[in-house]
Amino acid sequence: MMANPNQTMARSFVQVAAAPGEVAQPLRVVQMEGLAILKIIKHCKEFSPALVTGQLLGLDVGSVLEVTNCFPFPIREEDEELEADGANYQLEMMRCLREVNVDNNTVGWYQSTLLGSFQTVELVETFLNYQENIRRCVCIIYDPSRSNQGVLALKALKLSNSFMDLYRTNNFTGEKLREKNLSWVDIFEEIPIKVSNSVLISAFMSELEADTPVTQCDYDRLQLSTNPFLERNVEFLIECMDDLAVEQQKFQFYYRNLSRQQTQQQTWLQQRRIDNNARKAAGEEPLPEEDPSNPIFKPIPEPSRLDSFLITNQISNYCNQINGVVGQSLSRSYLMKALHDN
Amino acid sequence: MAAEQTVLQFFPSSASLSARVHPLLVFNICDCYVRRPDQAERVIGTLLGSVSADGTVDIRNSYAVPHNESSDQVALDIEYHHNMLLSHQKVNPKEVIVGWYSTGFGLTGGSALIHDFYAREVTNPIHLTVDTGFSSGEASIKAYVSINLSLGDQPLAAQFHEIPLDLRMVEAERVGYDILKTPVVDKLPSDLEGMEASVQRLLALIDDVYKYVDDVVEGRVEPDNNVGRSISDTLALVPKMSPATFDKLLNDRLQDHLLLLYLSSLTRTQLTIAEKLNTAAQIL
After folding, report:
1. CB-based contacts of A237: which residues, under 8 Å, 6+ apart?
2. Residues in CB range of B211: below 8 A, 6 or more apart
């Protein structure tokens, strides 16, 4: 999704020119500590299949965002009182962690997902909320369902700047989108993740775990059965396709209404001109060629394209996942064939 | 004569007690140690987890508790400990206090005091020591329980008794040691790269087995019955089926997968076309 690095560069130059003194370096890498990764995995896994979130703590250093620690949020309740409780919890946790010298800058949040179904309006809104308070923010997505296949399904995402501008002004009409040259691939930007560990930890891990020839990871990867995973993926894909079809229908409806309105306007205008010609011949004042009070001149609101964009993103995500898993599965099948032939 | 018999007693017996450590714990403790205050020698903290029915203590989480230490006394920030405990319980009520940890090698005089404090919070707490200074020359993590030594009704002393500790870290294996062991990893391995590594390891293992068997057959290596047995066990695990059945199975599977691949590619093409059409419709 980092489709256009040149564009981001250009944008940042524009920003630099617009705001002298403030150096805006584009975010290039998210550097995560092993501790944060393990904490995220533990939290997400323990509550799977329920979806959970938590806060990321760390430092913002130039073009690198360091994630050094994190803490989980309790499962969210709808109750208002409890919501205040949640805010208290967050403050309390930050205070406690500061006392033991943990970096206590918020740099974003993490959330678990089911088969990568994370591209929702909520995510976009949460992101903007965070973005308002902190300059640089990132969202880490972890998929516990894929880790059973020996894949570390960790992703760092951010919203692209042009999308955020558009979202703030709430302008998702076709015209605006074309003006900004924004398509569905440009909503999210994926940022490469780097992993770092303190030297002490790497010493401990090397000491505690001698090099084993086989790890759990290998067993998981060579597991032949992938059908349940694929089935659910395809199921989700079909649901998304249905949603997309509904969105498309909305647009068809809108265009049909629009063209009907235009014909109505045309007929009305012609009628008015004929009338006016008649009045002119009779020596009277012509009537105006516009009538704002007439309902046929009321503009029909254009449906927002946000939903269909997000759904499209979702679909392409599922397709990628299916392709990836099938690719692996094919190589496993051939491996099995080779073993059997021997 | 035997009426005044006094018995030296150990409480409680720790026959079936053992502990299992989640890899997160090692990371957390090391991180806290790295971030300890300047003057502090060691880090002390609370261990959270659960006790299963068979007496295995599953240590899953931890947090550091600030403390002050002078020559003969230890002051623990009890309020901090309680606040943190409440916060953790909000997220995961199933994790309760199971003991405490301290960095450094072995036990010190202060250990008994802190242990007494934790013994009031939970019965029979575990004391975990993590040798972050590598003072014994290796990374040693040890777990202890306290055993009260009493003479009759008179408590004499508390004795720390080492209990077995399970350090197998399946979770860490899932993540992959490659990224946990080295100080810096530039890029997370992608699906296919991981697969490649696994297949390579498998091939290396098969080669090893071949070599061993050849060596034994040639008489270069002393045969080991155990190894031979496990090789034959493994070979027996390969299901016996006729080549025709196997081919059918394999082909069906390949066709299923290719169909899926085709479908997903078709969908993607559709998306691209839809995108183009949308743009075209806007221009009109």
Report:
1. A315, A318, A319, A322, B264, B267
2. none
Read off the pTM: 0.80
Q: Is pLDDT above 50 for A177?
A: yes
Rounded to whole angstroms, the Cα distance separating A74 from B113 reads 33
Helical pair A306-341 and A227-281, crossing angle rounded to 10 deg: 150
For the segment B107-163, what is each residue's pLDDT rounded down to a tens digit?
777 788 888 888 888 888 888 888 887 777 777 888 888 877 777 666 667 778 788
Rounded to whole angstroms, the Cα distance separating B189 from B179 reads 9
Handedness of CA A101, A103, A106, A112 (dihedral sign): negative
B180 touches chain A (CB under 8 A): yes
Give me the residue from B90, B261, B274 closest to A323, CB to CB. Answer: B261
ipTM of this predicted complex? 0.81
- What are the chain B neighbours of A213 within 8 Å (beta carbons)? 201, 204-205
Residue B171 neighbours by CB distance under 10 Å: 17
List CB contacts (< 8 A) between B278 and chain A.
174
Q: A193-196 and A29-33 as β-strands: parallel, antiparallel, unpaired?
A: parallel
b/e map of A293-317 (b: 16 or more CB within 10 Å)? eeeeeeeeeebebbbbbbbbbbbbb
Q: What is the DSSP letter of A184?
A: G
B19: exposed, middle or buried (C-beta count within 10 Å: 0-12, 13-18, 19+)?
Answer: buried
Tell me, what's the pLDDT at B262? Answer: 92
Judged by CB atoms closer than 8 Å, whether chains meet at A39 and B24 is answered as yes
Q: Which residues of A touch B283 (CB under 8 A)?
A: 178
